[in-house]
Write a structure and sequence with these properties.
With 177 residues, the protein is α/β, with parallel strands linked by helices. The protein contains three helices and nine strands. It has one domain (11-152): Rossmann fold (3-Layer(aba) Sandwich), CATH 3.40.50.2020. The chain is globular. Bound molecules: guanosine-5'-monophosphate and magnesium ion (MG). Residues 40, 43, 68-69, 76, 99-107, 131, 152-154, 158-160 line the site of guanosine-5'-monophosphate.
Length: 177
């Protein structure tokens, strides 16, 4: 069985302060707008939970389940599957897409197109992490936590084959041997 090394990139405290900053920015723009925070599962669930509580303004949450990864992959396939789509219309609503991390940009680009067809009043993107090195599609990130280096990240909701999601910090995964 191969072993892994985990190198810490951000402590739980670093993540908390990034989320506090994002919450201030979003609160300023969306107070009294009752926005819909649209989380992209599964990776977003930890971030979403902390973000909505930091925001502390009236809002609604929805989730879609999209995936560009197969099991045991650390590379995007480049095609997106919708495992679970939107359950409620977002027509006329102020929608914020909530992503754990933007890598190639293919997932967010897909989410933006998917949502635009549903005619929201406004549509913006909030991502906790941005891995710019591997971007293939230019996507707008309106609210960003941290830029991250080109390595495979786990923790804070991010997994490797369903492992490591529970870790409260963010780590770079290195496989040895
Ligand atoms: P993209 O479509 O931008 O290439 O990738 C978006 C999705 O791939 C993210 O929402 C995330 O779920 C997953 N992803 C991208 N980079 C990483 C990474 O470094 N670690 C993990 N665990 N997932 C990632
Ligand atoms: Mg994701």
């Amino acid at each position: 069985m191969s072993e892994f090394q985990l190198e810490m990139l951000y402590t739980p405290g670093d993540i908390e302060s990034a989320i506090a900053r994002l919450a201030r920015e979003i609160r300023r723009d969306y107070r009294n707008k009752n926005p819909v925070l649209l989380g992209v599962l599964k990776g977003c669930f930890v971030f979403m939970a902390d973000l909505v509580r930091a925001l502390d303004i009236p809002l609604e949450t929805e989730f879609v389940s999209l995936s560009s990864y197969g099991p045991r992959r650390t590379q995007s396939k480049g095609t997106i599957e919708v495992f679970q789509g939107l359950r409620k219309p977002v027509r006329g609503r102020h929608v914020i897409v909530v992503e754990d991390i933007v890598d190639t940009g293919i997932t967010v680009d897909f989410a933006i197109r998917y949502l635009r067809r549903r005619r929201p009043a406004t549509l913006r993107v909030c991502a906790l992490f941005d891995k710019t090195a591997r971007r293939r599609v230019d996507v707008p990130i309106d609210y960003l936590g941290y830029k991250v280096p080109d390595c495979f990240l786990v923790g804070y909701g991010l997994d490797y084959d369903e492992r490591f999601r529970y870790l409260p910090g963010l780590y770079c995964l290195k496989e040895d041997g």
